[in-house]
Amino acid sequence: MFDVAIVGFGPTGAVAAGLLGLKGVRTFVCDEQTEVYDKPRAIALDHEIMRVFQQLGIAEAIEPFMEPFTNSEFYGVDGQLIKCMSTVAPPYPLGFSPSLVFTQPAVEAVLRQRVSQMPSVQLKLGHQVTGLQTSDDAVSLTVTDAQGQRSQVTARFVIACDGASSFVRKQVGIELEDLGFDEPWLVVDVKVNDKGMAKLPKVSVQYCEPQRPCTYVIGPKNHRRWEIAINPNEDPKQMATPEATWKLLSRWLQPDEATLWRQASYQFHALVAKEWRHKRVFVAGDAAHQQPPFLGQGMCQGIRDAANLSWKLADVVRERASDALLDSYCTERKGHVTELTSRIKGIGQLVGQRDLQKARERDARLLAECGGQVQPTPRQNVQPALVGGCLDTSKHSAVGTLFPQAWIEQAASPVRMDELLGCGWRLLLQSDVDASWIQAAASAQSGLNLKVQRLNAPGFEESSGVLASWFERMGCQAALVRPDHYVYGAFNSAQDLQAALLALKA
Questions:
Q1: Whole-angstrom distance, CA of residue 169 vs CA of residue 175
Q2: Residue closest to 2 by CA, chosen among 114, 110, 143, 149
Q3: C-alpha–C-alpha distance, residues 299 and 177, integer Å
Q4: pLDDT tens digit sequence for 350-360
Q5: Tens-place pLDDT, residues 453-489
Q6: Of the candidates 98, 150, 159, 111, which has an alpha carbon nearest to the alpha carbon of residue 127?
Q7: What is the rounded distance in angstroms from the CA atom of residue 320 to the CA atom of residue 325?
Q8: Please, are residues 23 and 314 in contact by the beta-carbon 8 Å criterion?
Q9: CB proximity list for 475: less than 8 A, separation 6 or greater
Q10: Nearest residue to 426 (alpha-carbon basis) of 493, 504, 496
Q11: Which ranges constitute the DSSP H helices of 137-206?
């Protein structure tokens, strides 16, 4: 019997398998497809996801397929700039450029190759789950190969990463909640030649035009993407033909200036699973949520699911934690995804306003809010914190936020913090704390396998001030950080820290 079975080997399933594999958890993975889809679907990711890839040991291998995201400029009815979304300036808080574009097939191939090397992970590609039965202590899956041959796989837990039409989600009766966004759009990926590149905008653009809202994204190298609204009187299938696509692109390009890579019509949704767990079955990725692409968070959301759930499953199967820990996955991820999807929906409604008068009012309002001078807003500001779940109850503002990752000076060259401290439970202390804090930490060493690190201790001197700035901004002496890099608690007394650690052990 396996500890965990994962249905689906897309980015979410692959990351979940990889993180479980790092911990030696016996993991089964199956997917109907044998190869990575050769065209891009996701195009954007952020530094939180790169930190996960770093944990998996593939950050350097995928660098050739990454580029920093440009600013996104929003233009209104009369072609005037009304809003700008930017990235934060260095030093970067998580050790990577905060917003990136990437080539999905290449990155996914590297990820799959890494997972395939893990001894505790068994892959069955070209196999489909066609049946599921749950019991008190296990889940039995019927797995069918391309020839129709069936076999049974049993696991203590199952993660459904099998996409928007998830078979597993439907089998266990989990429903989706509609957050009220339902629009047809055409997504077009293009490889542009030098002649075409000279004509195109040098930043990403949101064309907030009522007659045809549109998004233009600068991808890596010569990859460019358009997301173009389909009007009510238009047939989505017909709009996805090369002829119709080139007609829409004629505003920017001609057929001799680029090659169509992919064009597909989609119904953009804002959907979130009502429940994220049914007994021993969990949903993740597109099986748990779907969101419009306006902030490039679709794949990111799924990988956050995997990062949140994997360490909790590993602790439970190793009997380091009770089953109750797994309920925190549902609380944390449903709340985070719902809030972020609502914010994405808000951007979509801003871009996609179809009423001319309301669009003019939107433009005037946005310009009035900034005093007529548009100020860039960092994309990272839209990310909500985790609420509830496996978090300290102190209500400190740092709780549920991502802890930073600094570059640490080493003899040969600087390294990112996680390379030194690992990705388990970590306690970071201000440089001037007294011995009582170390004594408090010692009370939890055996239960949490806690890594304790004092700032600016020998061998741990940061070069950029990222950690020092964070502690000053948060006004605390200590930060207890979870394996997924979220802050469990922030403390200003050793007694409060000790109480929190003892509660975690219990």
A1: 8
A2: 143
A3: 19
A4: 999 999 999 99
A5: 999 999 999 988 999 999 999 999 999 999 999 999 9
A6: 150
A7: 10
A8: yes
A9: 492
A10: 504
A11: 167-171, 194-197
Please give the full DSSP string across 39-65, using - where no structure is assigned. Answer: S-S--EEEHHHHHHHHHHT-HHHHGGG
Instruction: State the first-to-last Cα distance of the chain, in angstroms, to the nearest integer.
Output: 28
Q: Is residue 89 within 8 Å of residue 379, measured between CB atoms?
A: no
Compute φ and ψ for 171, nearest 5 degrees.
-65, -35
Q: What is the pLDDT of residue 445?
A: 65
Ranges of H-type helices in 68-158 = 104-116
pTM for this prediction: 0.96
Do the beta carbons of residue 168 and residue 162 sit within 8 Å? yes
- Main-chain phi, psi angles of 482, to 5 degrees: -80, 170
Q: Report residue 146 as tokens.
A: 């391309």
Alpha helices in 269-371, H assignment, sequence order:
298-317, 324-351, 356-369
Q: Write out the two tokens for 443.
A: 């009370």
Helix (H, G, I), strand (E, B) or coil at 340: helix
3-state class (DSSP) for residue 222: coil
Residues constituting the chain? 506
Contact 45, 87 (CB under 8 A): no
Q: What angle do CA 216, 217, 221 make, to 5 degrees?
A: 130
Domains and their CATH numbers in the chain:
2-63+100-175+273-335 (3.50.50.60), 407-505 (3.40.30.120)
